[in-house]
Amino acid sequence: MTTQNDATTLRLLETFNDAWNRHDIDALMACMTDTCVFHAVAGPEAMGRTFEGREAVRAAFQSAWENFPDASWTEGVHFVSGNRAVSESTFRGTKADGTRVEARMVDVFTLRDGKIEVKNAFRKDRPAF
């Protein structure tokens, strides 16, 4: 059963996903809390690379479009359970060297006050083609 709170959170996740596809950094950040955290899909740490605070998260999000100017996240499916949520999607993008990435991924979110507090991203490790 979807509660009103779940329905509101699902709209937040859809808005967030749409902002990624529009490459709209301001709309993305409007979905995040002031104390947001982003755990990227890759990096030197067990959690990938961690970015903390609005400015660091904003820069990290912006770099996704710099690394993949045509990046898209499609076939989105969203789930909500209390203050946690999951979005599944297919990431597609072309790197500067012309190789393409296409892989299924998930974001695990922690929510606070109607916004995203933590975005923890996971993507299949599929070779570029």
Automatic annotation (TrEMBL):
Protein origin, superkingdom: Bacteria
Annotated Gene3D superfamilies: 3.10.450.50
InterPro entries listed in its UniProt record: NTF2-like_dom_sf, SnoaL-like
Ranges where the SnoaL-like domain occurs: 14-116
Coiled coil, from the record: none
Protein known as: Transcriptional regulator
